[in-house]
Protein: ELMO domain-containing protein
Organism: Denticeps clupeoides
Amino acid sequence: MPPPADIVKVAIEWPGAFPKLMEIDQKKPLSAIIKEVCEGWSVPNHDNYALQNADATNFYITEKNRNDIKNGSILRLTKSPASTAQELHERIQSSSMDAKLEALKDLATSSRDITFAQEFINLDGITLLTQMVESGTERYQKLQKIMKPCFGDLLSFTLTAFVELMDHGIISWDTFSVAFIKKIASYVNKSAMDTAVLQRSLAILESMVLNSQDLYQKVAQEITIGQLIPHLQGSDQDIQTYTIAVINALFLKAPEEKRQFDENSASILDCPLTEMAHILAQKQLRSIILTNVIRSPKPINEEMAHQLYVLQVLTFNLLEDRMMTKMDPQDQAQRDIIFELRRIAFDVECDSNNSGSIEKRKSMYTRDYKKLGFINHVNPAVDFTQIPPGMLALDNMLYFARHHQDAYIRIVLENSSREDKHECPFGRSSIELTKMLCEILKVGELRKCQASSSRLCLCYGFYSRSYRWVRFSRVMQVVREQIMRALTAKPNSLDQFKSRLQNLSYTEILKLRQSERMNQEDFQSRPILELREKIQPEIMELIKQQRLNRLCEGTCFRKISSRRRQDKFWYCRLSPNHKVLHYGDLEESPQGEVPHDSLQDKLPVADIKAVVTGKDCPHMKEKGALKQNKEVLELAFSVLYESDEYLNFIAPDKHEYCVWTDGLNALLGKEMTSEFTKSDMDTLLSMEMKLRLLDLENIQIPEAPPPIPKEPSNYDFVYDCN
């Protein structure tokens, strides 16, 4: 007979004694259970003790989390959070440097637990740590020359404990003094600083900026982009990640209103959002990131990829305001931009002192505006009243004219000599291209993107060539297809994008369309459709078996929280008979499969009620930054079992997410609906259809693949083309 659901069998440790096997009744108060455990070992004053997980987390067992205890769990009897907090509060004030260092190390570890953190904060522990940073470190700095490692460790553990305590969200960030902010900023601004101290300092600055507008103002007075950029030029990817996170935070909090700005000033405080973007460009941030991060021999980790994504989005979304701004035909400054386009194209001055009558000048302007390709020849400003693309189109045109002047003049003059039916109107084309790029690159939405002006210049060149073959009514469709196909290849640079566009001429687009149309027509006949319907269940069963086999191999999942710290891992795999999920925590990422017997926990498949994904997952509803991380949200899924119990997952990538959600749905007898299943179905079905439609009469297909031939005795037949 199985034990009652409220009874949990665990092992409990106590230093210097043999562990005890014990049955915990979850209906009993936790204090009664602790008293019973203490009495078993003759430990007095049970009120001063608590139970703790004996794993890498060392989290305390409380009334709130006691239901997380599973059969087979190992617990530890230890001092209560209040006693431990009081003890550490006293130890970190020790006059002995060694004792203080050990106390801070223990505090940094214990502070991860919210129960302990609450007790330590109640003792005004945060104030004590900030005072140690503000003034206490001055005393250590005097000793730095003779005991530099000790100084770095002291400060590192102090800041680590501070970060862990603040990450629980128990107290507000607005409570910190300017002296504390200056001290943290000084660690970031120093050219040579202990790596761990620099990491924690960057993390603290990021949290300050994100959590308080008032602290943003104070941090911005102390930190400059110029002082952050050197940290990107090192080889430590964690430091680079934290640095970009701080830049993103400052970017997010930068005021949008216009202010006077001195380009020679490095202060962030006086920079509105657009000026801050200008600073980043002036400091060649993208070039530094490309050289030291993206082209680094080290692979980019998930957190770095996310921070780069955020930086791209923030930079690109600056274009939204211009995209949604109509041109004011009466605004002289805006009209001067159009005059500048005319001046560059025709090498004329556009001031009002030109000789000739007003009518003659108007006629001359109208003629030139027509050559420039504007729809409204009399008042081209009207062309830019459509939103989108609004003023962004005019910005792009001016950028093209100034930075690619030869190409700009050539295009305008070529079209001046063409017949109307062959002309490629620069103005109209630029407006339509800008609008198209805004749609394709989703300006204003959270998407990965590149600079619009540079792509407009590239796209306009290919647009102009395509125009020689087709009329305006069709050319935009062709150019859109060229751009979409080029972006599908995921170019890493504008040069790759340009190369891809060069291979997608109008003739090539026609060939691709014709080939795709023929394939589509071939597979639309009734006999072919009937064959597809017959084959489809076989292919789906094949995909199902592949998914279940992958679940049997298992996957290592990373435990992610809103706090940045060393990665924690856990492993989950399906039993070979497809009846049980085995899972358990790991100390580090495994090399290869993890055996079933090393995974402590089990979940019968028969107990699984449902699989939920995304924002419906319990761990995505919890308070914290995970809710805001769209990439993590798209990789989250949970298994519901028993009465509102969940096993929560965050897949390492999209492929593993699809494999596991498909496999779990297959176990429950539900449809596999992931995008990978659709892709696999299309690929395998297409291959199987083509194989069955081959003319194989009198051709015997072998059961086994042919053997691999032996290597030749020499390679004299190889010709070196180089």
Observations:
- The CA atoms of residues 281 and 287 lie 9 Å apart.
